[in-house]
Design brief:
The complex is a heterotetramer of chains A (782), B (112), C (593) and D (218). Chain B is built from three helices and no strands. Chain B is an all-alpha fold and 112 residues long. Classes of the chains: A mainly alpha (782), B mainly alpha (112), C mainly alpha (593), D mainly alpha (218).
Chain lengths: 782, 112, 593, 218
Amino acid sequence: MNLDRMLPLLLGGAWLLPLLAFAIIALGGHYLKKTSSQHRAGFLSTVAILGSFVLAVVAFSMWVSDQGLGEPHHGPEFERAQLEENQTPIQLAALAEEGEAEHAHDGVFSVSGVWYIWAQVGEQKFEIGYYIDALTICLFVMITLVASCIHFFSLGYLQEELETGIKDHLVATSAGEPFERVGRQHRFFQYLSLFCFSMLGLVLAGNLLMVFIFWELVGICSYFLIGFYFERKAAQDAANKAFLVNRIGDLGFLVGIMALWGVLGTLTFGEMSTKLAELAPETQQQASPNKTTIQAASFLQDEEAKATNDEETADWNVGLLILAGLGIFCGCVGKSAQFPLHVWLPDAMEGPTPVSALVHSATMVAAGVYLVARCYPLFTEEVLLVIAYIGVITLLMAAMMALVAVDIKRVLAFSTISQLGYMMLALGVGGWSAGVFHLITHAFFKSLLFLGAGAVIHALHHEQLLIRMGGLRHKMPWTAGMMFVGCLAIAGAGIPGLDWGLSGYFSKDALLAQAYAFAQVNPSHVYLYWLPLAGKALTAFYIFRLWYLTFAGKPREKKLYENAHEAPLVMLIPMMVLTYFAITAGWQIPFTPSSVTTILEQALPAVASFETPWAAALNYPAEYLSHQYHTKIAWTAIATAGTGFLLATIFYVWQGLRPDEVQKQFGPLFRFLQAQLYLNEVYHFLFVRPLHGIARACSWIDRHLIDPFVDRMAKGTVNLARLEDQGDRKLIDRPIDWMSASFYDLAVQLKATQTGMIRQYLVFLVLGTVGFFFIVGYLWQL
Amino acid sequence: MFTQPIGVAHYLVVGAILFVCGIVCMTTKRNTIGILMGVELVLSAAILNFVAFSQPAFRVDQEASLGIDGHVFALFAIVLAAAEAAVALAIALNYYNNHSTIDVDRAQDLQG
Amino acid sequence: MSSAALLSSILFFPCLGALVILFWARISPAMCQKVSLVCSGLVALATFSFLLPGLPWSFAPYEATVQHGFALDWIPSFQIYYYLGLDGISFPLVVLTAGVSFLAIAASGTIKKHAVSYYILILLLITGMLGVFLSLDLFLFYIFWEVVLLPMYFLIGIWGGPRKEYAAIKFFLYTIFGSILMLIALLMLYFASDLTDPRLEEFVKSDTIIQQTVGSQALEGIEARQADDAVQPLHTFNILALQKIGQLTDQFDEPLLWGYSLQWWAFLLLFIGFAIKLPLVPVHTWLPDAHVEAPTPISMILAGVLLKMGGYGLIRICYPICPEAAQWFAYPVAILGVIAMLYGAFAALAQWDFKRLVAYSSVSHMGYVVLGLAVCSVYAGGQVDSQAWAMGMNGAMFQMIAHGISSAGMFFCVGMLYDRVKHRQLDQFGGLFHRMPTFSGLSFGIFFASMGLPGLCGFIGEIFVLLSTWKFSAVLAIVGSLTLLLTAGYILWTLQRVYLGFEYHGPLPEKLSPATKGEISILGVLLAFAILLGIYPQSLFRYMEATVTQTADALAERLSAKEEPDEQQAQLRIDPLEAPADTKTLLVERVQP
Amino acid sequence: MDNILWHSVFFWAFAVITCGFAVMVVLSDNIVRMAVALIFSLSGAAGLFLLAGADFVGAMQLMIYVGGTLVLLIFGVMLTAQGPFISLKAGSGDWIIAVVMVGLSLAMLLPMAWSVPDWHGPAMGASETKTTKQTALQEEAEADQETVVVEHNVSVTEIGLSLVGVRTDLNQEDQESGQLPEGYLLPFEIVSVHLLVILIGAAYLARAKRPRKPTKYP
């Protein structure tokens, strides 16, 4: 079989099928709608994505038969490392260096090429091409599979959109009645098909500019899908917000592309590594897949005259490379909803639930993680460290927000943010395959959870508040059961002794093990392990809180409960498929030593970590070295997750602790989290309002130029006099009044901290001490 | 576990657990006497650390131990702890006399 | 068919239509439109036929030279010729002009007042615009430039909105001010030029048009010069000859005033003139008023074609004739471009009038054109990176075409709404997606094209300009890229306020009828072009890239040769790909003792 | 089995006792049970002192703490433990805070305790490498030493002398070099006076008073 020829054909076909469906629906939507009773548009779309799935599977099997499934990386050094488990960190690092030399790797096999020249200026070409390796193929299968399931689910979920008179109870007309509109299922499938096309294009793209094109296209699809119920103000705002926040990230991405173009002169994935190597002509390329040290010093030439000059060029290049890495990561921060650009994702839940399942959990938001994985060789140590820390901040923050969310979809949205944070962390600490593996497992169990939530919302007639649910397991046993599996998967349930568990168990285990290995050799970044571990307890807590509140206990709203019903089969079957994969995605493929990870590891890029002048001298443990910690980490992780589970059970089943009491006790913190750290307000105050201010200022300047100049001169004198008077009042009196008033207010507010509670003072004392040691210890180690 | 010799670190871990127990005791007990008990635990943890640091056999570099200094400080700490207990108890009794309760949460006279 | 007959008939065919309308007794408005439609349709057809391969007059792609060039005597005593021709720079703009004009006339159905004069004027306007892009003689160019001005004045002043007189006179005064500066500059250039320079010998011998017009005289002069005889200088208005003079000789380098050279002053004057037309902040304030008051078809032409005249002037006259001045002005012009981008976007964000918003978006988008042209990057050792500059110029050209398509479409959308409900207040729309679904879908496409969504035409020009700017100055590139965000901001906000929502809450809701077939086809054609250029930009680049790149290369060569590379610098020269502009100063400091 | 160090065994035993009863103190709501658990916890700590070779300090711990302080505490319990006060329960939120603080403090303290390799105990590995170079006879002698942890017991005499200013553990040369003896005479005196003052004060505070109406604060 000729992979070079067949793969582009197959994957290109899989890529273009949804576009075809989109074009047909877009141009012939009117006709398709007229025969609405047969929902043709939906079928067309579904058939297209199924076709893509089939093509992707064929491509996958061709790949496997040609390239094999990959072998787990257990070298001889692994056993040795296991023997010497009680080594000190320094010895371990030395061991890692030693092991790398033996761990030779014959490069990444990929198929790349050009479909057509997009634009050519002089000698510079911009092409529409493809780059296919194991990662591309795995993601193609994952995306088309999840998308197929969700297309089917949508056929059921959006059944009512086929009717001609739909009452939207969330929109009240001026007459006070619910707004009535014509259903538009075909529009939904049109957008969904366009999205699938863009997402597959993003994964298939052969160069960064093409990635950027599809990056924006998935953004606009997300815009359309979030704003599907565009009658609702909230949906419009959410759609705008999603696109604009993403644009902020994209600006960074663009800067990254520009910087990369400046330093490498190419944006094609296939050429990047060669160009990177060219940057350092006398590279000491160690024969290692995971860490190639290109020392800045090697830029130095022999000739004295050239030396300083070249060094500066090298510095500049490395600086540009860091900028490029940070810029590209900035794009990923936007798309993957990482802190501080995560604010759009919770609002994006305004879209229909299948959209949340597909776009805002499984695929589009994972595109950021994909891009980081794809551009991995570009990232210097500083950038990776930034990625890791952003990931940690995100995962903790989002998990805490999920603790207090009351909307079932929002809990899942925060959970998505948190899990994306885990992936970023894994990539940041050198766990390339762990991060990508978690991307894939997460896609399955999170879309399962979202579809479950969709089934619940569908059954309750668009009720999303957790506090109005409860006891639904009697009415919807299948949904409850499958969602429970999903919860177990996201919490990473498994049995460490037998090395058996759901998919999330394996991916999170790999991820935490890598973080632990990283913390072992970089003691100053030990929190990169501790905090994710703590996050795991939170994960288990919030996800089971969701399940208990929805399905366990007694029904809280009798009327809603009475009308609830199990989802129809067209919705249940996709969920079953996803359940199957949520359970098994992490398992070994029968009769082989391989699993999804080993297939992915075929695409493991060689990391050229530049020893930059500003480097914090980090050690990146090779990923296979972290295998030795798996058992240890698995126990720890299970214990942590178990704590979270236990706590959730104590709270919501045994009612040993009372949630409302806790809520009262932590009132301010609770409100702070529920308001999403007031970030929306802060952004509004810091960015949106100043921007509008500048805009108004620009407009104002124009009008002043329009005004007759003489006119202004005539009125000038009078105005001057008035201005002086006003100036006295406003510029001198007002600030002084304001100052005194605000000092008084401040004092009144500060008074509240003096509660007089002895035990509370004690808590502050302890937290302060711990914080002090944290800061001092951290700075010291730095 | 039992084949490894004991080092300062082991004592420190025990001390840390005692310390944390003391802290938790102080923050979760509303009973004045309970808080006093927490204080005792915390002091006990500190004394334990003094003693551990003064034993040269507990560490690789035997010269670095505190020696007799640690013992003397431990003694002082014990004595002061005893004195502190006496005074604190006196205060607690007084508080009880005045407020007819030993619930510290009621003692909010310092509220701003 | 000879080139002369072909180009002239295309150029003056609209005038013929105007004559027909003029002498057709008691013609009805509908008939006027039909005649003009046929007339401009034939022109559009003719220009589009240049794109087809195989025809005897088809325009050859990947070709840098002038095609279909010809010159006829006009005022030979002042070396003024009727010299027309097409090359990669003018050809796309001619096609754009013909296409947008046709669509604008098709959109003129609502004009009932003084229809005869309206269509006569609009046909004259088309001739003027085509003439500006076709003429290669500076004097002819100037004449057509002025010909455009008057019909536009009347079209705004008679068929405009409530404040039409104010807007028309403002437009007229602004533009005439720029024209006067231009006139001074081109006379300066004319009198400083001399074709008898020996350095031009090769050019004079090879260029057929020069041979045809003043060739013998020039060659005699050159021979006399080489023999050290005194000769009368031979001035010229030929734009290509002036470009060669600017690039090959130092005739424009003489100091003129306050220590600045002639070309410095010429550049400044020409730049101001073109910047007003473009328009560039701070001389842009005629644009919002003119757009708001002009009727819809005129807005389409104004935004779609007229603004491009400024950009065309810059890339055709300003930069090639005055390369050193261009380098001197690189930073100020680039900064002005970035300011225009940001300022226009900010001002658009603050507008409540739909049409004003679109007008300001034009200011913002034309800023890219200026920025793309200005990026002559200078590196250590006096090497100018012609690649980056070519990329910027190409991006600027592409941006002009793309903006011609998207802004015409946007103005048409606004005009459609205004025709129905007679207001343009953004906060009094909403819910149009329910009432006019097809129209809304097409408008979304057009607006997204303007927003620079990849896959549509607006993206390519922007990304090219920004990429080339990065080589010039990273800071400007980063600041400039903020425009992308602001553009997305105002476009999305506008779409939300106008199209989304559940009900229309403005006056005259009963008038909101769905779009007619004609309106849909106008928008559909524009959107189709936007998509075509978006997914396959090479379809445009293939025609213009060679010429634009050649222009950039020639300029870069001139500038590189000008900077005397001394030995040490040559040694320190580094690959332009790897070194930023900023390191230049650093390296130079290092070299000097 | 031969390798078992009984010192370590006793250490773990006492450690479990100490920590276990300390946790009991925390988890118990009844004040009387807390007091009992505290007695055991402190006794366990005393055992740990003895294991660490601090005989005198251990004895003092038993006498003063377990004997004195706790009697005092129980005295207090009896005086105040009436009806509702025996078990005052804290709210759920308090427990959450407590768990967070446990986590934070342990996350800070435990890595710190293990962060210094010197503190991990006497180096057994070092002596192993030594044995390869030595003769078999010496090996036997060393083997005995290996299993027995050499402890340094501080005698009461040493402590007593140091409290009055005579340091027996320092080199004689250091003492004679003209510097002041580094004893604890001054601190000892200060502590003594301090104790006296405190006890008088405590007695004053706790003296029987006429019952008074609780002051009302605004």
